[in-house]
Structures are given as C-alpha cells and as structure tokens.
Amino acid sequence: VPELAEVETLRGQLEEEILGEEVLGVSVFDSKLRGSEVLFRGRVCAVKRHGKALVLTLEGGDVVIRLGMSGRLKLGAPERPPRLTLRFPGGEIHLIDRRRLSSIGPLGGLPKGVDPLLGDPPLVWDSSRPVKALLMDQDFLLGVGNIYASEALFVAAVDPFVPASRLSPEERLRIFGAVREVLLEAISLRGTTISDWRDLYGRPGLYQERLRVYGKEGRPCPRCGSPIRRRVLSGRGTWFCPSCQVQ
DNA sequence: TAACACCTGTTC
DNA sequence: GAACAGGTGTTA
Hints:
With 247 residues, the chain is α+β, with helices and mostly antiparallel strands. It has helices at 4-18, 131-136, 146-155, 169-188, and strands spanning 25-28, 44-50, 53-58, 61-66, 71-75, 84-88, 91-97, 103-106, 229-233, 236-240.
C-alpha cells in the first residue's frame, strides 16, 4: 500500500504519539532486520516523510523506514507477529509486514524527486517514457505509486501510455493538479485499504471507496460508462478508460 | 526498459 | 499450479 497518502497518514499520527518521547527499547524478531536496533536512540525530535519513506529524527540520528508493499506500523497490541517492536513510555509500536519487503536503515539513498504537495511541477518531463512510468519514478516525483498514478491520470484524462515528452504544458499542469487533488483527498480519508493497509491505530483507510479505475477492469467508467481496461505497463497493472483517456 | 529478485499470501 | 498484489534495487 504505502504510497504518499498512507505514509503521510502514519507520519501525522506518529507525530501525535511519539514526538518528544524517548525510545526505551527495541526488539527485533526478524533476522533480516538484525542490526537496525542500534539506530533507534534517544528522544524523537521530528517525524518526517520523504516520498514514501518515513524519516524519524532521533537524538541519536536519523532512521529511514520504508514500508514496502505490505508494511505498516501499529500502536498497541499487534494482531500478527511483528518484525520489530519499539517501546516508548506511552506504549509499543510494531512493524508488521506480511511480505517482509519493508526495510530500516540510516539516512541516505533517498530519491530526489519533487514532493507533489510541497513543490512546483517538475520542469523537465523527459523522454519517450510512458507518463505513468514517469509519475512513479521517485527521482521525478515523490510518493506516487501504482494506485494514485492510475487514479490521477484518469482524473486528468490522460492516457497512461502516452510518452511524457508528447504532453502539452496544459496537460502537464492538469496531471500535476490531479496528482495533488487525488493525494489530498486520500490523505483526508487515511489512505486506501485493499488488503493490508491500516493506520497507526489499526483502522483501514477509506479511499478505496473513491477509486475510479484502479482494480476496476470491466466496470463502467464513472465519466462515460465505457468498460475500464487493464493493461500492463512496466510490469505493473494499469487501469484506465480507453475512451476518456485518449490523446 | 525490461526482467527479475526480494517475500508471502490470496485468488483464479 | 499460475497469476497477481501497495515497492524498490540490481542485472541483462
């Protein structure tokens, strides 16, 4: 799950719960995360997000948490065995991850794209790559993953397969605006829960009820009624309306 | 840019 | 059994 909207949801909730709190202890239960316990030292000075990465700034240094496809953080009792547990005065926070693709590390190697909620649209929309692949490139734009790329391109009425270099300036602005709009609404609904995603308190998000095309193959387009199609683009499922999203 | 690897679970 | 799933890093 965790794209920008989900990570931003967690970031805000973590800030509420642990800002200023001291890490009392760390338990690592998954050998693949061995060694990461030494990163968590001191009080929490800031809870930041860089695209889809969560960055905890502690007195002992910065820790980057990447949630992968199915990772999440849960305050209080975990409903499945955690990979790692952080203890704070107010309670425990568990990293839970069915697929074990999440990772923890020191600061470094963060992608250099623009945050769509903070920055201006990128100026260089390079090359012949399909626009959806570009939107998901974390060195171009931060935080957009497969769900929100499909949704934003539908809102902007742009074909995901069109080479980015062929987009007009108006279309670029429309796409950027659609990305922001979709992400802001998803944040306000605590993200999209398809199967794994839950917020810090274990609650599902609500944006799955607003999805227009993602996962909707064969269902009618909300704009024109044509059946939504699914095709593969750079190895990822891509849903779109073949009638509204043509160049 | 594509394919695969990393993982595990669910669905066809 | 095979295909597929929110991400990302490496390899051909």
